[in-house]
Amino acid sequence: MHRRMLLAAAVLPLLAACSGADLDPILVRDPANLPRPVVFFNEDSSTLDDAAKATIREAADTADRFGDARVNVFGYAGPMGGADFNRQLSDARARVVASQLRQNGIASERIFVVSRGPVPFDMAPIESRRVEIRFAAPAPRPPQ
């Protein structure tokens, strides 16, 4: 029995590395173990291209398979330019991704937007112009 538990602990991270389409909600009990889809943007832009829309559609499909999992949307911007501009840009990016998730059928109450603002200088420029979608277990419901 102990060996099975060790095997499961070794296999679950490997499952999380697979695409969302390959994951079974029964095998991955904690949505936080799911891969984190990333949407990239052009410099100084919060406009979604076709690749970004496809990534968001796949994230929405994954969220659907995991029932009421929370969908956290983290927006980032590069370090160049003013801090206020970059905070607003990271917020705009996160909000446009959240809006697209809603258009793909994810309920608003499941989506949480977090604007992270500018990232450090040591990160590659494309990595800083992104939105990460992270799944999490639903918030506990208050007793009735």
Key terms for this structure?
about 140 residues; alpha+beta; 60s Ribosomal Protein L30, Chain: A; 4-stranded mixed beta sheet; 4 helices; 4 strands; about 40% helix; disordered N terminus
Description of the structure:
- By secondary structure, the chain is α+β, with helices and mostly antiparallel strands.
- It has one domain: OmpA-like domain (60s Ribosomal Protein L30, Chain: A).
- It contains 4 helices and 4 strands, in the order αβαβαβαβ.
- The protein has helices at residues 2-17, 50-65, 83-103, 125-128, and strands spanning 38-40, 70-77, 111-118, 130-136.
- The relative contact order is 0.20.
- Mean pLDDT is 78; it is low at 1-21.
The biggest beta sheet reads: 4 strands, mixed
Using the 3D structure, state the CATH architecture: 2-Layer Sandwich
Low-pLDDT runs: 1-21
User: How many strands appear in the DSSP assignment?
Assistant: 4
Count of separate structural domains: 1
Per CATH, the superfamily is OmpA-like domain
Mean pLDDT: 78
CATH class: Alpha Beta
Helix % is 25-40%
CATH topology grouping: 60s Ribosomal Protein L30, Chain: A
Structural class: alpha+beta
Strand order of the largest sheet: 1-4-2-3
Radius of gyration: 17 Å
Q: Write the H/E string, N to C.
A: HEHEHEHE
Number of separate helices: 4
Shape: globular
Distance between the termini: 38 Å
What percentage of amino acids are in beta strands? 15-25%
List strands and helices in order, with pairings:
Layout: H1 2-17, E1 38-40, H2 50-65, E2 70-77, H3 83-103, E3 111-118, H4 125-128, E4 130-136
Parallel strand pairs: 2-3
Antiparallel strand pairs: 1-4, 2-4
